[in-house]
């Protein structure tokens, strides 16, 4: 997952497979979230809804709502839930920053890398906080600094063919500074903010060609390739393929990554 668009969506209509990429982080999030059978869960920036469905599967006497600004992601989340026959889950296409959630309704807020794309983070977390019951927890994963992410540096360097332009401060890395996170959540009315480093490899595909295809779905790739002529594009793609091949293992293409697991109390 690289620098996404304004709302964290892939550049094209294709859907990036976050479930595959983030499979190790899912385990870490699950352990930290600790859903209870009676929980009413809000999943922020739910994407294709794996985290929402999983929460709903544990909250058997409760329910889960996933919200995402992307209609493509929400449609996919609904399709997958219907196919898996998860009945206590719902998805809404909504901007969590401003969506009129019912007040003090949810007993748990969760997000797997879906909280970094708000135009106004304090407004967004205040809005989410209003929807949570007093005393309830918000548990989310965000990326650490882009310079610490092997997937970012390798892909950007390969596509740029040298030093790439700086990674934008907004977007995927907007919550990479713990002091910023603490300040935003405190200003939004949360307490007991706890920020823990977690490091897990991220998966890009079963082989280098599949990994190249995955990377090319991302906005970062289209931005770095924009303006290149046909020969330059071919060279950039060759470098990208080599980079993917250098990270290929018997279990597919993997890169190192570093995240923050953030918990806070409403
Ligand atoms: C990096 S993806 C993660 C998706 C999902 N949580 C997962 O782990 O598979 C970030 C998601 O946040 C969504 N998003 C970005 N800004 C949002 C907002 N303001 N409200 C709701 N969803 C948002 C994007 O559309 C995207 O699906």
List keywords for this structure.
266 residues, alpha/beta, Rossmann fold, 7-stranded mixed beta sheet, 3-stranded antiparallel beta sheet, 10 helices, 10 strands, binds S-adenosylmethionine
Can you describe this structure?
- The protein has 266 residues and is α/β, with parallel strands linked by helices.
- The chain has a domain at 18-145 and 168-201 and 258-265: 3-Layer(aba) Sandwich (Rossmann fold), CATH 3.40.50.
- The chain contains 10 helices and 10 strands.
- It has helices at residues 18-21, 23-33, 50-58, 71-84, 121-131, 150-160, 178-187, 208-216, 219-225, 230-246, and strands at residues 40-44, 63-68, 89-93, 106-112, 132-143, 191-199, 202-205, 248-249, 252-255, 258-265.
- The strands form 2 sheets. The protein has a 7-stranded mixed β-sheet, sandwiched between helices. Strands 7-9-8 form a 3-stranded antiparallel β-sheet, sandwiched between helices.
- The two termini are 29 Å apart.
- Residues 1-12 have low confidence and may be disordered.
- The site of S-adenosylmethionine has 26 residues, from α3 and β2.
């Amino acid at each position: 997952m690289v620098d996404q668009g304004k709302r964290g969506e892939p550049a094209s209509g294709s859907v990036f497979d976050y479930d595959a990429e983030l499979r190790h982080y899912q385990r870490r999030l699950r352990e930290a979230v600790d859903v209870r059978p009676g929980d009413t869960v809000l999943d922020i920036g739910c994407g294709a809804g794996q985290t929402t469905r999983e929460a709903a599967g544990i909250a058997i006497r409760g329910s889960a709502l996933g919200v995402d600004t992307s209609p493509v992601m929400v449609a996919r989340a609904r399709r997958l839930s219907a196919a898996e026959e998860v009945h206590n889950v719902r998805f809404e296409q909504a901007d969590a920053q401003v969506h009129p959630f019912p007040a003090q309704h949810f007993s748990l807020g969760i997000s797997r890398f879906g909280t970094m794309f708000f135009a106004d983070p304090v407004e967004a977390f205040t809005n989410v906080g209003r929807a949570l019951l007093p005393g309830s927890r918000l548990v989310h994963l965000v990326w650490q600094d882009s310079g610490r992410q092997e997937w970012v540096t390798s892909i950007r360097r390969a596509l740029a063919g040298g030093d790439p332009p700086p990674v934008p401060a907004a977007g995927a890395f907007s919550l990479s500074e713990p002091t910023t996170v603490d300040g935003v959540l405190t200003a939004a009315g949360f307490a007991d903010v706890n920020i823990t480093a977690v490091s897990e490899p991220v998966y890009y595909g079963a082989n280098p060609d599949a990994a190249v295809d995955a990377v090319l779905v991302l906005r970062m790739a289209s931005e770095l390739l924009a303006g290149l002529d046909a020969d330059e594009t071919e060279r950039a793609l060759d470098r990208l393929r080599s980079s993917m091949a250098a990270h290929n293992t018997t279990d597919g293409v993997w890169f190192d990554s570093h995240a923050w697991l953030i918990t806070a109390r409403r």
